[in-house]
Amino acid sequence: MPDFTLFGFSPEHQSLFETVDRYSRDELYPLSERMDLEDWFPEEKLRSLAGVGLLGTTAAEEDGGQGLDFLGQCIVAEAMAYWNHAFTASWMSSENVCLHNIVRNGSPEQRRRFLPRFARGEWIGALGLTEAGAGSDALGGMRTTATRKGDRYVLNGRKMFITNAPVADVVLVYARTAPDQGNQGVSAFLVEKAESPFECVQELDKMGWRGSPTGELLFDDCEVPAENLIGAENGGAGVAMSGLNLERVIMSFYNLAVAQRALDLTVAYAKAREQFGRAIGQFQLVQGMLADMFTELEAARAFTYQVGREVAGLLSHGPSASGDHKRAAAAILQSARMTNRVLDHGVQIHGGTGFMRESEINRLYRCGKLLEIGAGTNQIRQVIIARELLR
Q1: Does 86 score more than 80 pLDDT?
Q2: 233, 254, 286: which is the final residue of a domain?
């Protein structure tokens, strides 16, 4: 268990981690095997988190939420992901990329109207940004449109690879409102399924993150009230970019949890597994891999926690103050690469057992590749860093 006070975090943050860690061990870990084997999503368990204060985490108390800061939300994600990474993926999609965007960019009236329903577990959220032909170039290649008609916008288009698509009650959707203005002609909308019906036209079968539902959304003449516009018309690029910075930081905390779980499983296996009359942990080549796993994890932890503190300190300055783009990109670039190297060593030390689909290290290994793809691929992260350096 990490000692957050060593990194300048408050005792309250440490207590938060320990509380969520205990809950996740007892309530979420037992679900993980079935989620992977059956690609089963425990929807009611996610909604029931309202009863233990793990929904509406960054919404203000007057809006029905828990009033945590962004750093607190990151710590919840790390504690939860250690025990059930797939469940946490769906939680983050709702709590961070959807709800927290409303917290930061919604009007006071929107916050009053939307946030309490998230906090009560009535709504699960999702982010509708990526399209089949527009992943890394999500804004420039966007084909979904929103046309103003009186007091409503009419949305038409599709969104692909959307976490929580099959179960989402609300989707933060980005659509082109001024096609001739490129990236500056995109707007963000809160689309409520009950009031503005949309359809999940296919649920996707994934290599990892099984049990966290992912799908394709169809918006076919979907009418959305104008008051559900987040920010200004044609101001969606700013909303998206500030949200991506925060998503990359919370994903970095998530990566630490996956790597820590892999290390702990592997150390336990190296102590128990015997070959040639000795525990394999007694062999120096195995010890070398374990030492590398630990060292890379701790280096990434120090950088991730520092960037997390920087971002949390800046958020009080307004929605656009989401931190240094290159440092957020660097944190997720480093932590994702580290996690995949740790997972690779973990499977290697587990040997044949690690290659078996039902082993926990195998579940973690299959989730690892997504960490280098989601929230901007490694290559996009490199581009962001290089552009900032060369300005």
Answers
A1: yes
A2: 233
**205 and 285 belong to one structural domain:** no
How far is the C-alpha of 147 from the C-alpha of 155, rounded, in Å? 7
Helix (H, G, I), strand (E, B) or coil at 336: helix
How many Å apart are CA 39 and CA 65, to the nearest integer?
Answer: 30
Q: Which of 98, 123, 148 is the last residue of a domain?
A: 123
Q: Given the residues 78, 247, 296, 372, select the one marked as catalytic.
A: 247
d(CA 353, CA 349): 9
Strands (E), the chain: 125-128, 145-149, 152-163, 170-176, 186-192, 199-203, 214-225, 229-230, 274-275, 278-279
Record the pTM: 0.96
228/254 same-domain check: no
Report the Cα 116 to chain-centroid distance in Å: 21
Judged on CB neighbours under 10 Å (0-12, 13-18, 19+), 2 is: buried
Closest by Cα among 154, 148, 120, 130 to 46: 120
**Given this model, what pLDDT does residue 243 score?**
87
First to last CA, the chain: 40
> The domain containing residue 310 runs over which residues?
237-390
Q: Give catalytic status of residue 203 as yes or no.
A: no
Question: 155: domain CATH number?
Answer: 2.40.110.10
Average of per-residue pLDDT across 286-303: 98
Are 204 and 321 in the same domain?
Answer: no
C-alpha distance from residue 252 to each of 244, 288, 305, 325 (Å) = 12, 25, 9, 14
- Give the Å distances, CA to CA, from 200 to 32, 93, 129: 24, 16, 15
pLDDT class of 320 with cuts at 50, 70, 90: low
**Cβ atoms of residues 334 and 306 within 8 Å:** no
Quick one: 41 and 179 in the same domain? Answer: no
Residue 196, burial from CB neighbour count under 10 angstroms (0-12, 13-18, 19+): buried
